[in-house]
Amino acid sequence: MKFLSEYRDPEVAAQYLKLIKKTVTRPWTIMEVCGGQTHSLVKNGILDMLPPEITMVHGPGCPVCVTPVELIDQAVWLAEEKGVILCSFGDMLRVPGSHKSLLEAKAQGADVRILYSPLEAVRLAQTHPDREVVFFAVGFETTAPANALSVVHAKRLGLKNYSILTSHVLVPPAIEAIMEDEQTRVNGFLAAGHVCTIMGTMEYYPLAERFRVPIVVTGFEPVDLLQGILMTVQQLEKGEARVEVQYSRMVREEGNPRAQELLFEVFEVTDRWWRGIELIPMSGFRLKEAYAPWDATRKFDMPPGEAKEEETCISGDIMKGIKKPHECPNFGTRCTPERPLGAPMVSSEGACAAYYHFSNLAKQLAQ
What we know:
Among the domains are: 5-25 and 45-54 and 175-245, HypD, alpha/beta domain 1 (Rossmann fold, 3-Layer(aba) Sandwich), CATH 3.40.50.11750; 65-170 and 255-299, Rossmann fold (3-Layer(aba) Sandwich), CATH 3.40.50.11740. The protein has 17 helices and 11 strands. It has helices at 10-23, 35-43, 46-49, 63-66, 69-80, 102-107, 118-127, 144-157, 171-180, 193-199, 205-211, 222-238, 257-266, 296-299, 315-319, 351-358, 360-366, and strands spanning 28-34, 54-61, 85-88, 112-114, 133-139, 162-169, 188-192, 215-218, 243-245, 267-273, 279-287. It has a 6-stranded mixed beta sheet, with helices on both faces. The protein has a 5-stranded parallel beta sheet with strand order 2-1-7-8-9. It is globular, with a radius of gyration of 21 Å.
């Protein structure tokens, strides 16, 4: 594909690897925040190519992985008990709730549909005026504008049978929570390029200064990641802690002002629970009062309850960079993509799924 093959060039990748090995003199731990970056690192064998001084750990940048069990239970309840048309992206369907996943609910007769855009759900509401349509709005800042736009369209069209179940989370508060954790061993971050395409880089300057960590906004292809790692190591070796942009072909300091305008028209910032982690203050979006009629949590009388995590799942430690997927005793045995104990094993951006599918070392350790 045009403008992608250049970032998969093995000769260029080899040059960056050589520079990384020449530059690093001390052990450093670097966290890539985005699950897409995790998959690229593992799938392309980059983790095995890096010098032993560099340890990559995998952050909470998989939105499906951090969606609370309670919200999955609510989505299942809406589909089964309220008879709504429950719409979602495909990687949410197999994530386990307290008792079942959305896919299991679908197999048992619930009307659960896989869509590629929330605007498809708006069209469903138009063509099924006698049915309630709920879109499970999951994601970081990257997907939030499209979900906000769907609500704006529904309001303009006067569709009272459309709503969204919101589970939007924000990256900067997650970085802050990781750095405040006394167990953290992270020295630098590869920030998520797609998030910064929307939000820009301004939010990261205070974090780099406060915690004295380099934050390099990085793309997702092998050359992107190797260049981002090199830029991070160069800062660490010099004792610097700055925000830099490797993904300059997409990211501007100001981000996408029009998308941000839409976001803050529809959403306001709120506290959010992160599955496997904890409550992170002011780390998510919820619909503003002006859009309350399109908020599924206000529209439906949701059942109370505190859903419990699977006790043996260590996904929280994995997403905070404390442990690696293959360090979980259940990895590849009790926990597989077919029968996951936690979301990182089944999500298309989950670290455990990446190791299961692409890491030979992890498979050997699981046997």
